[in-house]
Specification:
Blueprint (H helix, E strand, L loop, with lengths): L2 H5 L2 H8 L2 E7 L2 E6 L3 E6 L13 E7 L2 E7 H4 L12 E7 L2 E7 L1 E7 L5 E2 L8 H4 L1 E7 L2 E6 L1 H9 L1
Parallel strand pairs: 2-11, 5-7
Antiparallel strand pairs: 1-2, 1-8, 3-6, 4-5, 6-7, 9-10, 10-11
Amino acid sequence: MTTETLTAAPEEVRDDLHGRYLTFYIGDTLYGIELMHVIEIISVQPTTRVPGLPPYIKGLINLRGKVVPVIDIRLKFHQEERPYDDKTCIIVVTIDDMNVGLIADAVAEVADIDQSLTSPPPELGTADGERYLRSVAKVGDRVILNIDIQRFFRSDLG
């Protein structure tokens, strides 16, 4: 690792990650989260269930000494639950200085998405998935629904 990398200011790191998204699948739909929020991707782990929480909050995990809540994106979007398989993973993100795990069906890739390829999400009604979207991007023949991480967690972490 170079000295430049070690001493890079947070603003420089954010600039390097601007327009880069980790893409993942929920069913056949491709979603994206800004890479600047992503800490790591881990395999699904047993969770400690917390009574009284919504079913989409699967519980807590111990991640190297830190307690991390885990949310199943599929369930938060009111989609049918499905058994986890070898592609199911937890995307650990940071929001307001807190780490949270997001269970996704599968991770796709890191995509560079130019702002010119994005548009605001259409207003189709009151679907939960729609209100959590920041933008919709068309990259090649794929459509990527980019999640607004602040809105996604607003009701859970407020």
